# Entry
Amino acid sequence: MKFFFSLLFFLSSNLLTKELVLKCENNYSFKFSNFNANNKISSYKFNDGDWIEIKEFKFKDNNVELFIPNMEYLACSDDNLPVCRYSILISGLTNQRPIFTESVLKDCFIGTMGCNEYSKGLKLNQSLCKIK
# Structure
């Protein structure tokens, strides 16, 4: 009888908690819990690190924009120029190969190979993900 109730509890909790896990080519992984519900929970990890909850995100259709604190590019040597900060966009969440890109949040400068200006909304560093 205990086995039956344990099995019933396990099955019902798995049915209620839908989870989507993505592994991306750039060594990031993303987990979306309660994916089919309104109270979604997002988290990420880099390489084999621990899962870190993402506090701010926006779902729209089959896409998500993730705002992870301190995501910024290399600053220019001129401290007066704004450093580029970015959000992560994952499009085609339920497709076989979702696409990961970084989206510049405001006009800024990146200090790689000189000092280059980038515009708000520019998409950089595209990579593919797969559903695990």
